Amino acid sequence: MARFILGRLVKAVFILLAILVFNFFLIHAAPGDPAAVMAGEAGAGDPTYLAELRERFGLDQPLYVQLWIYIKGAVQLDLGYSLRQQMPVAELIADRLPATLLLTGVAFVLSLVFGVIAGVAASARQGSWGDTIISTLALLFYATPLFWVALMAALVFSVWLEWLPGFGYQSIGAGYTGLAHAWDVTKHLILPASTLGLFFMAIYMRMTRASMLEVSRLDFVKTARAKGLKRRVIQRRHILRNALLPVITLAGLQAGQIFGGAILTETVFAWPGIGRLMFEAINQRDYNVILGVFYISAAMVLLFNLITDVVYVIIDPRIRLTG
Amino acid sequence: MSLLEIRDLAVALPEGADRAFAAKDINFDLDRGEILCIVGESGSGKSMSANAVMGLLPQGVKPVKGTITFDGEPILGLPEKEMLKLRGGRISMIFQEPLSALNPLMRVGAQIAEVFEAHGALTPPERRARALKLLDEVGIPDPEAAIRAYPFQLSGGQRQRVMIAMALALEPDILIADEPTTALDVTTQAQILTLIEDLRQKRGMAVIFITHDFGVVADIADRVIVMQTGEIVESGAADEVLLRPSHPYTKALIDAIPRLTQRSEADAQTREPILTVEDLQKTFSTGSGSLFGKRRVVRAVQDVSFELYAGETIGIVGESGSGKSTVGRCLVRLLDPDGGRVMVEGADIAELTGSALRDNRRKLQMIFQDPFSSLNPRARVSRILTEGLIAYGTPRREALARARELLELVGLDASAMNRFPHEFSGGQRQRIGIARALALDPKIIIADEAVSALDVSIQAQVLDLLADLKTRLELSMLFITHDLRVAARICDRIIVMQKGRIVEAGPTGKVLHDPDTEYTRSLLDAIPGQEYERALETAGA
């Protein structure tokens, strides 16, 4: 197991390095160089100023030296400087990261847990009223556009009912600390997290239901019944565990997107996360920020793929012992 | 009073099925310590009757009439809670497919311990100890290792032993065995049959043994029931039914059994060989062999050489894992051999690439084992039969005309053209598979277990068809099979393979009746129903 993880980590480092190099050449493929962009934005075309800028950022060095410097920086999480925000990119991202991880992480866990539970419940009563209701709701959530659900949720729960705050990460100027702060953030979190989670919950529910029904027809389930095991035990121990394998594959793919996949929700609920940072950076041509987010996203995808593989290996002995 | 009494049992199929009852008018008794065989072809309702005893019928299939009395108590229609006590406790069951019948994600020990858990017997450490003892009892070589193993780490025979250990855990009164040896090699089958026979004697357990194989029946049955389309057509003591069958269906089934002694005449091989295989090698390796993960190497085919003459049929026989299928696949280049030569009409198939390979490989065509998965379920028969021809440049119209001829050749109606594979029975599908193989006018047919998935009576028809086509179209054939009786029926010469090597080769009569090697002899000894076959011959003579 340790060897497996080590192997995957080594591969991940190489992929990340490849992405870095790709990043680097992406910058240099654009016409002009960052110095020209900066000078242009500052409204100064003075060649000495340009040369000064180039020297300051090391742009007068040969390409391979620049590549080396860039990689060295990136490895130490120095992702350059955002001229727009007048802050180092790494700091900007670190600032926004917790909010995004909180939102998408909570949405992901909620959707997975409730999706699987709903799927199991629906499959256990295949064709009954309960199954029909769960399946219809899931289809509804799946088919409705995310931004519409978000707007409606804000309208109903925040504007009309005034139960929950409709935007932001915390009450501005309230200065809560400790538990009061946590409760404040939780209240702000409920609407965006459930909006984002509903869609994925619908997918997990349908997947779990289909997978449970398929597995329940397999021979070993009949063996389990022939042993005289109770229905619930068969459901949990024999069917669910086997049925979870495809769900985990799907969840792993989606967990990789957790980082950047919440732009819409963050925009509607004014959630100060990475998605909005990215969105603003694109609008403002803030290359260093875009590339920084790209780099961190790639790292996240690799991390979640690794986690998925480890979970898979824990659940399915066939991979652990033959792979 | 018998241990189990079934009276007037009728099991209804869901509406829209091809008949109303899966089984009806089922009457039989089972005594303690008795082995009762239920024989019939697929779809005869033999499994349904047994599943009804366990209360494990598939969804939509329901018993509608009759009684089942177990140990003096009626058990048909008993509430689920009461049935749970019987299942696995007093009546237990083993199934055909030992791989899929075990949960792939659970250790073997845990799956056995579950039986005790389900019935609230013993403490967890005692359960483990009992599981170990059971594994030892059913003849698993290293129980300590097996108890921690996952099903995929065991061989087919070992998995079936685990199933049996599970079924015996609580010393049931009745063991229901549903085709338990059908998926196994002859040698493994013989061991499992001996094991069941032993257990019956030691524990006085009654056995209901469901099978389509009369050889197996002859070896173990005390009494026999023959079923056809849901009804019992004949029943009685084993000797009575097997040697003096009264019902025409039973007679037909018994006549269809291929005999070891039934031998086709081998004509003198003076002609040129059409296929020459020299030193064929194929090695499989799993795992990357890189820094992480160790490499496992299986030498599937080693130094295999033989010649196939025009108009001749060679049988390649061996246990699973002997490399016989790999040889077939290397010949048509579904696998690339690692070494050796495959000469067909002066060209080395093993070496060719690109268009030269395409032009030559049409001379060898393959018929596969599973008539269900070897035809594209989304393609009509017309497409299945013309695809190859069109790929080789035959105009569509001509290809369709040829496809109709082919259907006639294999004994199917031209109306089959517009139908999908699932609309045909297993035997018909295999005929389509044969027609597909013949479409490109091959010189050589390679049949890989082509009749193994078929019932005996269908098997006989398909073998007759193959023999007939062979003479009419002047084909040569390589017949890969694990079934020595089938080989005896159709082959001129036989090659016996073990662990990737040829251990014996010679004329069919010589190999099957006077083998040179110990291995071939052990294969022959494992064939079930040999005494029965001799008895049939004496009776017939």
Automatic annotation (TrEMBL), chain A:
Membrane topology reported for the UniProt record: Multi-pass membrane protein
Keyword tags: Cell membrane, Membrane, Transmembrane, Transmembrane helix, Transport
Highest taxon of source: Bacteria
Residue ranges crossing the lipid bilayer per the database entry: 12-30, 101-124, 136-161, 189-207, 239-269, 289-315
Domain ABC transmembrane type-1: 97-312
Pfam families: BPD_transp_1, BPD_transp_1_N
GO cellular component: plasma membrane
Localization, UniProt: Cell membrane
Main location: membrane
UniProt record, GO biological process: transmembrane transport
PANTHER family in alphabetical order: ABC TRANSPORTER PERMEASE PROTEIN (PTHR43163:SF9), DIPEPTIDE TRANSPORT SYSTEM PERMEASE PROTEIN DPPB-RELATED (PTHR43163)
Family: Belongs to the binding-protein-dependent transport system permease family.
Entry protein name: ABC transporter permease
UniProt organism field: Roseovarius spongiae
From TrEMBL, chain B:
UniProt GO MF annotations: ATP binding; ATP hydrolysis activity
Keywords: ATP-binding, Cell membrane, Membrane, Nucleotide-binding, Transport
Pfam families to which the protein is assigned, alphabetical: ABC_tran, oligo_HPY
InterPro entries listed in its UniProt record: AAA+_ATPase, ABC_Ni/Peptide_Import, ABC_transporter-like_ATP-bd, ABC_transporter-like_CS, Oligopep_ABC_C, P-loop_NTPase
Signal peptide annotation: none
Any one annotated GO CC term: plasma membrane
Gene Ontology biological-process annotations: peptide transport; transmembrane transport
Keyword Repeat: no
Membrane topology: Peripheral membrane protein
ABC transporter domain: residues covered: 4-254, 275-524
Subcellular location, record wording: Cell inner membrane
NCBIfam families found in the cross-reference section: PRK10419.1, PRK11308.1
Family to which this protein belongs: Belongs to the ABC transporter superfamily.
Name of the featured protein: ABC transporter ATP-binding protein
Organism in which the protein naturally occurs: Roseovarius spongiae
